[in-house]
Each structure stands twice: as C-alpha cells, then as structure tokens.
C-alpha cells in the first residue's frame, strides 16, 4: 500500500460512521453498477474522502449539510496546496459524481455538485512518433537482442491476474532457468509492439487479451476497454505475422500452469503485466535511439497516422474506444501542428 493510500485509509476511518458508509456505498456503486476499474474507484474514493474530511473540519456532521460552498472551499484549498489544473478538474468531477449519486440515493436533498464549476484542464499535445520511427520501434525485436533488463522492477510486483513483472523477463533470464526459452522473448516483444501500434489499444487492453480474442480470419481482435465496453479492432499483415510466430514458436515455450488463456505471457508464464509492457517498450525505444516512448505514445502515433492517412474521425474514435468524440479530436490538432511545422521548415516565406 502506498503512502497516499495509507493516508486515505486513515482519513476514512476518522470520518463519522454515516459518512464512512456513504463512501463505501459509493465505491460499491462505482464498481458493481458503473463497472469502473479498481484504479478508477480508488481515485474517486481518494477524492471523496478528502472532500468529506474537509467538510467535517468545516463543521458538517451530517451528509445532508454538504452544500456548494463546502465543495468550492475544498477545491480552493486544493488549489492553494498546489494542485494542478488537471487534478482540480478531476477532483471536481469526483465531487459532482458523488453528489449526483447521493441525491439519487436520498442522502442529499439536492444535487449540490451540479453547479460546481472546475478549471478547464490544459491538454498538452501528445507525443507522436513519425511513421519511420514507429516502424523502427516495432521491428526492433527482430533486429537486435532484447534489452538487458526491460522489466527492471521489484520481483514481487504482480497484478491481480498473477502477471509477471520481474527483472528476469529477458532472454538472459529465461535462458538461465525461467520458464521458456530465450528465443521466445523477442517474439513476445515483437507481437506486443506490433499490436500496440497496429491497433492503438491501451497497454492494459493488450495485456488483457486472451488467445480466443484473436480472429485470425478477419484479422480482428476483441478488446474490452474502459467500463467493460467491448469493441473489435482490426490489425494488419505485419501484426498477423508476428502473432503467427508468437503462437507457433513463442508462447508454447513460455506457457506454464499460470498461463490460462492469456495471449501475452511474462517470464514466469503468467499474464504479462502492463508495467512490464511499458518498460519493454521504453527499453526498445532507448536502444533504438528513439525519443522516450511509452505504449500510450504508440497509441497516440497510431491515431495520428490514421487521421493523416485519411481515416474518418468517427472511425478512429471507434477504434480507440473513446466514449466522446472530444477525446479523439486532439489528434486533429496534432496533425495540424505537424503540418505547420513542415510548412515553417519548407516554405520560403514561412
């Protein structure tokens, strides 16, 4: 448990019983009814506990006493403590979500959070690789030895599915006695990189894929995104070749009792951990001489290259699994900025 989680737990326990119950019921609503991920529920609960702790300090002993002035005071205090605009926007969203739920549940006489304004989060343009850089990255496992230690993590780090995140998740580690063979690691790394760039899926979605989620005939993968929403995402011929090699020669060498139906495996045979996947991507980018790159940068690159190639914005929204078109529109700004940069570089009167 992190220091922040311990602090939240302490504040939660210090709340009056009725407020503690409200927090727990809201968390269960997010998890069971809204089908939010454990990470999202934890973020909402952290914000809510902070809000209610502030309300108690202001003299609110009952949830029905929570009003707009308390919410605004809480956000103002967060701002004076140095919270970024993005953090303030997220915390305001948490407060609005709780207020709406509490009003529906009869715990608040009115939805006081509906009138709560929040600062517009400043959105920086995402980091995007050029097409040749993305190609160099996804082909790196076929051209170079695996990085010495792409995992580089605490060997006790595992996720809920029993996934691997360990410093032996390398060719050398496998050859020295871990499950599988050294030749399987580049095949696993290649299919990971190919899928991330070919489909633009989130790293958690890639690591969550099962063997049965791959439709080889139609070259489509079935992805379960945020909120458990299912979508089908196509991939191309290079990714198909990487998948065929991995399933024929790589996965059988790494499979073990903990593998289940997982498509991508870690060194101990369990489902590949997203943390390890991030470090694999970063390590190959570094050894290939590319800018610092994450799986999300590959997602950004895939979306940008699709739009630059003429794909419809709505189609890209569907591929990425965005619930709102506004989330996808940022990639139009990326494309415009790249066009402006090329113009400034090439035009004699720029």
Report on this model:
The chain is mainly α. The chain is 56% helix and 3% strand. It folds into two domains: 113 residues, DNA polymerase, domain 1 (Orthogonal Bundle); 166 residues, Intergrase catalytic core (hpI Integrase, Chain A), CATH 1.10.443. It is built from 14 helices and three strands. A hairpin with a 5-residue loop joins strand 2 and strand 3. Helix 8 packs across helix 12 and helix 13 packs across helix 14.
**Which structural class do you get from the secondary structure elements?**
mainly alpha
Largest sheet properties: 3 strands, antiparallel
CATH class category of the largest domain? Mainly Alpha
What is the CATH topology classification name of the largest domain?
hpI Integrase, Chain A
Q: How large a portion of the residues is in β-strands, by DSSP E? A: under 5%
Which SSEs are present, and which pair or pack?
Blueprint: H1 3-14, H2 17-33, H3 38-57, H4 68-80, H5 85-104, H6 131-143, H7 171-175, H8 184-199, H9 203-207, E1 214-215, E2 220-224, E3 230-234, H10 237-254, H11 274-287, H12 295-308, H13 313-320, H14 325-346
Antiparallel strand pairs: 1-2, 2-3
């Amino acid at each position: 448990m992190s220091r922040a989680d311990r602090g939240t737990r302490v504040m939660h326990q210090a709340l009056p019983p009725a407020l503690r119950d409200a927090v727990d019921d809201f968390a269960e609503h997010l998890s069971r009814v809204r089908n939010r991920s454990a990470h999202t529920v934890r973020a909402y609960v952290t914000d809510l506990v902070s809000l209610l702790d502030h309300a108690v300090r202001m003299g609110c002993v009952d949830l029905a006493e929570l009003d707009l002035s308390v919410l605004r005071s809480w956000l103002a205090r967060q701002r004076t403590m140095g919270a970024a605009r993005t953090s303030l926007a997220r915390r305001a969203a948490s407060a609005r979500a709780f207020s709406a739920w509490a009003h529906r549940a009869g715990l608040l006489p009115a939805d006081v959070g509906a009138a709560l304004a929040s600062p517009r989060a400043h959105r920086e343009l995402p980091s995007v690789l050029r097409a040749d850089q993305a190609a160099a990255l996804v082909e790196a496992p076929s051209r170079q030895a695996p990085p010495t230690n792409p995992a580089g993590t605490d060997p006790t780090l595992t996720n809920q599915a029993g996934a691997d995140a360990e410093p032996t998740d390398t060719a050398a580690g496998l050859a020295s006695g871990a499950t599988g063979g050294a030749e399987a690691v580049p095949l696993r790394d290649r299919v990971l990189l190919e899928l991330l760039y070919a489909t633009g899926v989130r790293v958690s979605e890639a690591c969550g894929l099962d063997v049965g989620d791959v439709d080889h005939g139609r070259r489509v993968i079935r992805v379960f995104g945020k909120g458990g929403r299912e979508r089908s995402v196509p991939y191309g011929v290079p990714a198909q070749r990487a998948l065929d090699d991995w399933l024929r020669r790589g996965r059988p060498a790494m499979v073990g009792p903990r593998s289940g139906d997982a498509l991508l495996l870690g060194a101990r045979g369990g489902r590949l951990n997203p943390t390890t996947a991030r470090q694999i991507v970063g390590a190959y980018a570094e050894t290939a001489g590319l800018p610092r790159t994450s799986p999300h940068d590959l997602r950004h690159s895939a979306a940008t290259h699709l739009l630059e190639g003429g794909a419809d914005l709505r189609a890209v929204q569907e591929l990425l699994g965005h619930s709102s078109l506004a989330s996808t529109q940022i990639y139009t700004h990326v494309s415009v900025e790249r066009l402006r940069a090329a113009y400034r570089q090439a035009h004699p009167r720029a």
